[in-house]
# Entry
Amino acid sequence: MFCNTFSKSVKGLTWWINRIVQFNLNASNIYVGINAMVAKKVKTDVYVEDREVEAKWPDEKTETLYKSMVPCKFGGHLDQMWTQAMFKEAGRMCNDRATEEVAQQTVKWIDENKTSVLAVTQDKSQQEQLRDLLVKKFKMKRNLIHLMARGDGTQFTDEMVASGQCPDYKVVITTKDYCTGFSCTRCQVMICQPLATNQTTMTQLRARINRIGQSASRVVYMTVHIGLLTLRYQWKKDAAMLEKTLETFADEIEVF
# Structure
């Protein structure tokens, strides 16, 4: 009886789970999708704080230009057909402004908290863009910034820095595609914009700082968004809430 009821309830979640896992769900593999969501994670005693920062356009002219390319239902002023070119340009403007704000929030965190930052970007191009902003606009020394790459395996921990096996970077920048195989417990904050990836990847990225070896009593996850990225941020919050709900459910019935 319980199995039948559970199966019917789970089928109603297919649409949600399909937004999070990296494969198409069907009646045969839906439980695989749920298992990917609720797999046990190492629990720490670290307090987790989520923050959001809504970036502002630098001036009225830029904001007006952006809104002229975005439909009213998405917060713009466009009252004609929304073309692919408009969508791409509006997205580029949001990504560029969000990257600038990530750089600003990174420098602000370091100045105020005297600890290192893990920043996450969409891709390698944006990774280099963020580094260049930190160096050129905020005058950060280039050797204090580390760009993660696949196969890097950097272990940026207090122990590795103390032993001289790893430099004491101010900023470590990775991409959404490189979310495992390294540790950044030297960092107490992760800053990024809403990334075009699934919730499983975001969970892996968050675990780079909140894991065994984290000496701080609190870690902060800061999300910077603006314009179209604000819509993506709302979607990400829905996905994160579903993951938390399913994980709690798994703990209760102990079946996964």
Remarks:
- Residues 84-113 form the longest helix (30 residues).
